[in-house]
Amino acid sequence: MNRQNALLPPHAEMVRAMLERDTAYEGVFFTAVKTTGIFCRPGCTARKPRPENVEFFAHADECLSAGYRACLRCKPLDAAAIAPDWVQKLLIAVDANPEVRWSDVQLLAEGVEPLKLRRWFKQHFGMTFHAWLRTRRLGMALGGIKQGHSIDHVAFDSGYESLSGFRDAFQKSFHITPGRATHREPLLFSRLTTPLGPMIAMAERRGLVLLEFLDRPALTREVEELQHRYGYAVAPGHNGHLRQIEEELTQYFAGKLTGFNVPLHLPGSEFARQVWAELAKIPYGQTSTYGTIAAKLGKPGASRAVGLANGHNRLSIVLPCHRVIGADGSLTGYGGGQPRKAFLLRLEKAAVQLTEHLAF
Length: 360
What we know:
By secondary structure, the chain is an alpha/beta fold. Helix content is 45%, strand content 12%. The chain has 16 helices and ten strands. The strands form three sheets. It has a four-stranded mixed sheet. Strands 7-6-5-8 form a four-stranded mixed sheet, with helices on both faces. Strands 9-10 form a two-stranded parallel sheet. β6 and β7 (207-213) form a beta hairpin. α8 packs antiparallel against α9 and α14 (290-296) packs across α15 (303-311). It is flat and about 65 Å long. 36% of the residues are buried. One of its GO terms (cellular component) is cytoplasm.
């Protein structure tokens, strides 16, 4: 099953939601109109097309890749960068009372349909809401252990009724016992929705470590390397670095931010870090080549090695490997896919042109 159809609601339900402008489906799917070449949010107030002239996509970047333009009325690219109101309300409630287990009965009492919530979380977080809650509690427990709290305290504070149940769940999640967790650095992750599809951000106390599109083929290998080679214990959660990158990405996609300020931590070889440092120097709205980067490093014959290090960059967009193109000006390989690379370059070029126009 392809990515477009894997987590979409039934076709008839999407048609109904589109015709009734059901805002409960904001962020769940996008409506693309074949006759106009425009894609919209489900709740768009524009005149509704005939159902036979519509196709549905799970992600905004799929609409763009299929040749559709964003609707100027409902601005679906802006909407794709945030969770719908009903999800945001629930996430705020979870943050306020992290120990609550949130049964289906409680969700319904809050006006949240459990099946719809499950579908949204599977699409944007890669797991069900209840699985996310469990791993989030374990992540908080890991943080407590690192801060010197006793295993007994963090187990019961995390909502577990027995130490054995907590130990089993902890070891299953982190592949270590709670007693050994004091030697592992917590790497907290959060999934973000963006105009180009969902991304995952990971950060530890020193800075942002990873920012990738969830469908990047190398993502699993990158996370395993962080766990096994660099000793991280990966868990869902929030910290200041994750909140900062979420805010900065929103500004970047709005064309209002040309440089990221979030602190970075870059585990890797010395040569890879040198290449990544050169990536960070490529100006917003401009491009470079592997050969140029190799020359700046004093290794003009190392274009291929530069390309490999570029491909191992874990910080998409922040370390702008999308600004590296072929010597002939062609769009070379990009881990997030060439349609995304083209979109990012167009976004930056348009923002630069707008700034220059306003300067006159």
